[in-house]
């Protein structure tokens, strides 16, 4: 007997309902409408941070640029670019145009770098020095911070150990790499009270919440560790103090892992500024007073918050005269609001104007600090595929490795070659995975044309993986021998690099 029509109806409607549900689920999946159900937090999502003390490193440079608002480096803007510029290894910057302008106009600028005196100096550390050298050759005075306080705080190195490591491992190699002692000043964080005082003063402009969001510091974070970034901000800004060269742009070349410190420092510097210059929406610039505890009187605000017209007018007259000296007659001052609009000004005049306003701020008793400029380099891969680290000797080459040690490391390093010679000849090698090739590119090959030929030879299978390693070993041998010779020349003369206050 056939089933009753009623049962048929139920069966068919269940079938239809199931189909509809299935289709809906499929459509949702296709449009990722319920991503939130199964999504894992994105590695570079909202709370992504760079940890400057971590042994991990992000190498997604494009996203780092986006996430942290770095500017990509424009090679055509760099005069006499060095190999790291030409090969795209220095890939981003903040405000580098200010330094490039100083180079063009032959006006003063400084370079600041720092070293953590723990462990041995390796190839990775030499990249910053190559950059410092380039800035030095283009007129910058060089300041090197020995981060002995940071090493004490974060690596448990005593100040005595730190001093020894700094001189015998790092500074001797900086000399050998070609820094010029005539315009280099090496100092120790622990021996420069001006740096510590500045760190302390800047501490008033930040708080634990900001440190949590930049560095992920938590309740259990050691307080010495909390102080380290403030000391680094002191390092970066102190060359602008009168006794260390005065107001001038300072550039800090770093690996991208140090950018959190630069973000912090830029923020701190601008929070101390008495005058803020912003681009107007409709074009032109807008100067605004920034009233703070220690400047309110001078800027025309009394302790009870009332406007002191007399003081306000004095300060406005000074600003107006600066603006007219810079060349603008068409301005709209609003003393009550503490703002002055300059519709005709462009970003080009912004720097000149800011410079003059910083001078005014200094005359009136403020610090007059400029935010630091910076450049960022990519990291060379570790020889094992991990991050380079002093504590893992097999991941890198130390500046004083013997030729034998170096050769062994290169021979064991990751290769981008194919499994068999036949396959390699047919498919070619992969330079992007080949440590030997990358070490040529980052460190040992001086000639771009030769490097290109090596790349092509590898990719079309003419050069085998073993041959690539041998090329690397040969060039590294020259490089290391040269460095060791130069170290000998400089030994006993390191004092020439040390600042007077480092004894
Ligand atoms: N924090 C840096 C490091 O870990 C060392 C350092 C201290 C530094 N002060 C600096 C680096 C100023 C650049 C600029 O290596």
Structure description:
- Helix 11 (223-237) packs across helix 12.
- The longest helix has 26 residues, at 5-30.
- The chain contains 19 helices and eleven strands.
- The protein has 503 residues and is α/β, with parallel strands linked by helices.
- Mean pLDDT is 93; it is low at 35-41.
- The chain has helices spanning 5-30, 35-38, 61-68, 83-86, 96-105, 123-137, 148-155, 159-177, 193-202, 208-215, 223-237, 259-272, 309-326, 347-363, 403-412, 421-427, 435-444, 448-459, 465-490; strands at residues 71-72, 90-94, 110-115, 141-146, 184-188, 250-255, 275-279, 285-289, 332-334, 339-342, 373-377.
- Tryptophan binds next to strand 3, helix 11 and strand 6.
């Amino acid at each position: 007997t056939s089933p009753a029509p009623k049962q048929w109806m139920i069966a068919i409607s269940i079938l239809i309902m199931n189909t509809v549900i299935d289709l809906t689920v499929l459509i949702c999946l296709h449009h990722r409408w319920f991503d939130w159900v199964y999504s894992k937090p994105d590695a570079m999502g909202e709370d992504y941070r760079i940890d400057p003390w971590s042994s991990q490193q992000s190498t997604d440079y494009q996203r780092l640029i986006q996430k942290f608002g770095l500017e990509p480096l424009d090679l055509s803007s760099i005069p006499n670019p060095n190999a790291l510029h030409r090969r795209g290894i220095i890939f981003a910057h903040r405000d580098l145009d200010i330094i490039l302008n100083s180079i063009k106009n032959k006006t003063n600028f400084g370079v600041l770098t720092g070293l953590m005196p723990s462990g041995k100096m390796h190839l990775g550390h030499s990249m910053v020095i190559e950059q410092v050298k380039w800035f030095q050759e283009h007129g910058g005075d060089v300041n090197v911070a020995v981060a002995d306080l940071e090493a004490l705080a974060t690596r448990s190195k005593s100040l005595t150990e730190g001093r020894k490591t700094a001189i015998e491992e790092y500074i001797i190699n900086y000399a050998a790499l070609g820094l010029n002692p005539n315009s280099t000043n090496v100092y120790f964080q622990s021996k420069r009270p001006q740096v510590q005082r500045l760190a302390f003063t800047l501490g008033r402009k930040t708080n634990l919440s900001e440190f949590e969001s930049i560095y992920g510091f938590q309740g259990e974070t050691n307080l010495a560790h909390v102080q380290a970034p403030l000391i680094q901000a002191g390092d970066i800004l102190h060359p602008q103090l009168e006794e260390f060269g005065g107001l001038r742009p300072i550039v800090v070349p770093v690996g991208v892992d140090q950018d959190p410190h630069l973000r912090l420092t830029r923020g701190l510097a601008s929070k101390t500024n008495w005058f803020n210059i912003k681009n107007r929406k409709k074009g032109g610039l807008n100067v605004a007073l920034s009233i703070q505890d220690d400047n309110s009187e001078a800027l025309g605000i009394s302790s009870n918050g009332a406007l002191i017209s007399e003081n306000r007018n004095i300060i406005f007259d000074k600003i107006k005269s600066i603006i007219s000296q810079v060349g603008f007659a068409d301005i709209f001052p609003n003393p009550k609001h503490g703002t002055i609009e300059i519709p005709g000004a462009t970003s080009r005049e912004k720097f000149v104007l800011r410079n003059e306003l910083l001078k005014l701020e200094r005359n009136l008793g403020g610090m007059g600090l400029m935010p630091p400029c910076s450049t960022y380099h990519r990291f060379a891969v570790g020889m094992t595929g991990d991050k380079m680290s002093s504590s893992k000797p097999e991941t890198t080459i130390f500046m004083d490795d013997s030729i034998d040690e170096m050769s062994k490391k290169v021979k064991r390093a990751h290769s981008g070659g194919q499994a068999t010679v036949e396959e390699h000849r047919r498919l070619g090698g992969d330079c992007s995975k080949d440590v030997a090739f990358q070490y040529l590119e980052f460190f040992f090959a001086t000639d771009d044309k030769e490097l290109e030929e090596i790349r092509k030879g590898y990719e079309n299978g003419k050069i085998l993986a073993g041959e690539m390693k041998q090329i690397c070993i040969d060039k590294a041998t020259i490089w290391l021998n040269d460095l060791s010779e130069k170290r000998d020349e400089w030994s006993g003369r390191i004092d020439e690099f040390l600042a007077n206050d480092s004894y």
